[in-house]
Amino acid sequence: MADDVSSAHPIGEAEAAALVQRLRTALGDKGVSTDPHEIAPHIQDWRGRWRGWTPVLVKPASTEEVARAVRICAEAGASITPQGGNSGLVNGGVPYGEVLISLRRMNQVREVDPRNDAMTLEAGVVLTEAQRVADEAGRLFPLSLGAEGVATIGGLISTNAGGVAVLRYGMMRDLVLGLEVVLPDGQIWNGLRALRKDNTGYDLKHLFIGAEGTLGVVTAATLKLFPRPAVRETAWAVVASPDDAVALLARAKHLSGGAVTGFELVPSLALDLVVEHLPGARDPLPASAPWRVLIELSLPRAEGARELMEAILADAMEAGLASDAAIAGNEAQRAAMWRIRENIAVAEKAHGKARKHDVSVPVSRLPDFMTRAGALVEATLPGATIIAFGHVGDGNMHYNVVPPRGVDPEAFVEDAGAPVTRAIHDLVTELNGSISAEHGVGKLKREELADRKAGVELDLMRAVKQALDPAGRMNPGRVL
Ligand SMILES: Cc1cc2nc3c(=O)[nH]c(=O)nc-3n(C[C@H](O)[C@H](O)[C@H](O)COP(=O)(O)OP(=O)(O)OC[C@H]3O[C@@H](n4cnc5c(N)ncnc54)[C@H](O)[C@@H]3O)c2cc1C
């Protein structure tokens, strides 16, 4: 069954020409492109690691146009890859012969309902725009991540994106109230309900969240809004180990009554890379210790906020968990601290190739993971450099391994580094963690997922795919 539902159906040249003609008739010239220059940025991923191809780029401007295009593809037996901002990191949105449907033109705000703390946006709205719309309505849309200037609502939903505020607000799955989806046969499912309570059977929206385009095309979503915090207190603390960072997190959560919205681990190595590659960046607190944490509290009142952060940091120093700390004194300093964290991936990219691992374990087991993973990498590839950073508050590390001198980085990132990944992922599995915490599966981890998921779980996933997309035309070869 796995092969039935995952095999691609790229179409031949003659069929492609006929298909393009039908799509043009249905969507007009604005909605269809075969121009290689226009297509070029859509068929290469953000890191420049994968390059695909497509016979046609479809650019629908409405749900009805998406449905028309999907119906035409179904009739022609052509596979589809949906795409948003193309910032995904697992080779999920780059087409390999599929018809590419870009949702970027579907960028309308359909409704903002502050009294219901909800807004309905089309799939192509970029995350920074979603945040702006919420802010304009006096609310907060809390999702925030490094690619927020390009990632779209449809892509964020389809990858169940995480980011830097999951600790308090949850993943994208937790922020979605309702969805509108074009199904693989071209039917439109309008599930745009703005309800907090709705126990009327299976909650279908969750099937499409994190499905990476394998079950349908997300065209719009109703999203949760939150009160805007009156004040954010942000601090940068120097810690000796991930163990101390996890202990500090627990104390900060307790002392703040759950007001910690961000808690990110930054190794000094990553900090050095950002300072080297990002113009204007500097270490907020020069120190020789190997780790820093970025702590953010979001509070409803300004009174007492600074004192609360000071108390948390004083407590950490008294307990021997932090050797030094600085509180952002103004918005510019706060932004500078976050800029460091958010630019680690960018600085790493400028620095060179690394083998990436987006893994999670229970927060309590993170220190154990970090110690053992370090030893495993050294044993598997002596001299390799580890750049492990990220969402320690969610137990999620971006665990990246740079090969030592003398090892070809290109080959290491492709096949030669597989033993390192196997060692790290075996450890993650032993600790009951996940080999993909927030980036998804795509083509990159598809085979490994099949090896690592228990049979029952995988069978259920395949049954869902078979029920919704029996011909296996929606983003084939991704996830399953
Ligand atoms: C610098 C950087 C930092 C990042 N930081 C984070 C982070 O902190 N946390 C995190 O979770 N991710 C992060 N990412 C990954 C990426 O931003 C997310 O995966 C994001 O959700 C992708 O959105 P997109 O619109 O670019 O989707 P795309 O890359 O276009 O697509 C991603 C997947 O979703 C599918 N898809 C896209 N749109 C639709 C749709 N409308 N309907 C159905 N399927 C669709 C695609 O087929 C593909 O499988 C980061 C990426 C970069 C480059």
Secondary structure layout plus pairing:
Blueprint lengths: L1 H5 L6 H15 L4 E2 L2 H4 L17 E2 L4 H14 L3 E4 L15 E4 L6 E5 L4 E5 L4 H10 L2 E2 L12 H6 L7 H4 L2 H4 E7 L5 E4 L13 H4 L8 E8 L1 E2 L3 E9 L2 H15 L3 E8 H10 L13 E9 L5 H14 L5 E4 L3 H12 L1 H8 L6 E3 L5 H15 L4 E7 L4 E7 L6 H8 L1 H13 L15 H7 L2 H14 L12
Parallel strand pairs: 2-4, 3-4
Antiparallel strand pairs: 1-2, 5-6, 6-10, 7-11, 8-9, 8-10, 12-14, 12-15, 13-14, 16-18, 17-18
Bound molecules: flavin-adenine dinucleotide.
Can you offer a commentary on this structure?
The protein has 480 residues and is α+β, with helices and mostly antiparallel strands. It has 19 helices and 18 strands. The chain folds into four domains: 112 residues, Uridine Diphospho-n-acetylenolpyruvylglucosamine Reductase, domain 2 (2-Layer Sandwich); 119 residues, 2-Layer Sandwich (Uridine Diphospho-n-acetylenolpyruvylglucosamine Reductase, domain 3), CATH 3.30.465.10; 113 residues, Alpha-Beta Plaits; 89 residues, 2-Layer Sandwich (Alpha-Beta Plaits). Helices cover 38% and strands 19% of the residues. Strands 5-6-10-8-9 form a five-stranded antiparallel β-sheet. Strand 17 and strand 18 form a beta hairpin. Helix 2 runs antiparallel to helix 4 and helix 15 runs antiparallel to helix 17. The longest helix has 15 residues. The N terminus is likely disordered. The structure holds flavin-adenine dinucleotide (FAD). Flavin-adenine dinucleotide binds next to strand 3, helix 6 and strand 10.
